[in-house]
Structure formats: C-alpha cells, structure tokens
C-alpha cells in the first residue's frame, strides 16, 4: 500500500524515527532520552495527522507487530555514519542499554 | 454542575480513586502500584465513557487543576480506617513515597 511504502522510505532515509503521540508520557520519555544522548530523531506525532494517524498506526502494526507508541526505528549503521560525518561521538553501549530499558 | 457533584461524591465515598485511561502506560503503572501495595482503588476509565469522558476530564481540571491522567485521589484517614477494618496492614511511608515518586 502507499502508506506502507511511505513508512519504509521514512525509516530507510532517517537514522532514528520515533512514531509518537504528543500527549503520551512514554513517548515524551523516549524523545527526551534521545535528546539527552545528543541524537535528533525524526518524530512523527500520530495524533496530529487527522484520520491518517490511526491508519499509520495500523500499517506500523503490520510491518512490526507493534501496535503501541512509542514505536522507535533505528538504522544503526546509518546512525553511526551520520554521527561520524558530523564529528559527533555516541556511546553506543549507553544507547542500546537505555533503549532496552525504556522499551520494557 | 451535576458532573462536579458526582466526582465529589465518588472521592468522598471511596478511599482511593484513580481516573485513568485503558491504553495509557502511566495509568497502568499507577494501577499496578496500588495492586502491589494491596490497595484496591476505584478505577474510572475516562476513555470508556463515550462523550462523558472528556467532560469528566474537564471537571477534574476545574476541581484539581490537573488535566492529565492518571489522576489519583486518596482519602488517607478513610483509607486507614477501611484497611484497619479489614485487618490489612499498610506501610504508609512506602505508599506516600511511592506515590510521590510516580507522580513526577
Ligand atoms: N511497554 C510498551 C508499552 C507501550 C504502550 O502500551 N503504549 C500505549 C501508550 S503509553 C499505547 O500505544 N496504547 C495504544 C494507543 O495509544 O493507541 C513500551 O514501553 O513501549
Ligand atoms: N507527570 C505526570 C504526567 C501526566 C501526563 O502527561 N499524562 C498524559 C498521559 S501519559 C495525559 O493525561 N495527557 C493528556 C490526555 O491524555 O488527555 C504524571 O506522572 O501524572
Ligand atoms: S498515554 Fe500515558 S504513558 Fe502513554
């Protein structure tokens, strides 16, 4: 479907993508976690897209099995390359550990 | 208003009342916190009340200044009496400390 292609393109073109909702505290925590790590994700607020929001949430469930927010996509190799090109250092162990902790 | 009176009656007749939403993880955490403490709150799921949900959320904001969920009401004296009458013990320091921690 067209929406499915949009998601695939989005996550392939951006190192970190967070599908979120503006009023959801779990989503806020994930967004500020990335901010603390010095990573700027592409954030897509599903509650600000009108009727496309629920449709997008369904597509994400089809693609990932996850129907909840926050839904985080990380292209690790992509992320490392873009960080290196910006002369930024990232504690990868910290990132992975933090994400494991926050997604339980 | 009638809805305001309903809320005042509800929180005066029940030791612990949690205004919640079924799909909200913060609300789930507060509900399972009480479960761990052996306290059974009256839970009101605002997303399962049709159009009355948002109205109720507005009334709560008028009464408490808080427009978010979870919104927790505790009648401490009431709680202690009802626990004593059921021969239940409660670590009150634990309860207060836990609630302070979870409502930041
Ligand atoms: N343990 C999961 C919980 C995810 C979850 O339950 N998210 C809620 C919001 S906090 C949700 O998406 N509910 C359904 C919805 O909002 O459509 C995580 O940390 O990501
Ligand atoms: N720090 C507050 C956060 C409360 C909060 O932001 N709640 C969100 C849901 S997690 C909310 O009610 N958003 C507006 C809404 O759902 O109507 C707490 O722990 O209670
Ligand atoms: S909606 Fe409350 S934590 Fe996500």
Automatic annotation (TrEMBL), chains A, B:
Glutaredoxin domain mapped to chain residues: 16-75
Name of the protein in its database record: OLC1v1006883C1
A GO biological-process term: cellular response to oxidative stress
Range of the intact protein held here: 72 to 175 of 181
A single GO molecular function term of this UniProt record: glutathione disulfide oxidoreductase activity
Organism: Oldenlandia corymbosa var. corymbosa
Cellular component GO terms, alphabetical: cytoplasm
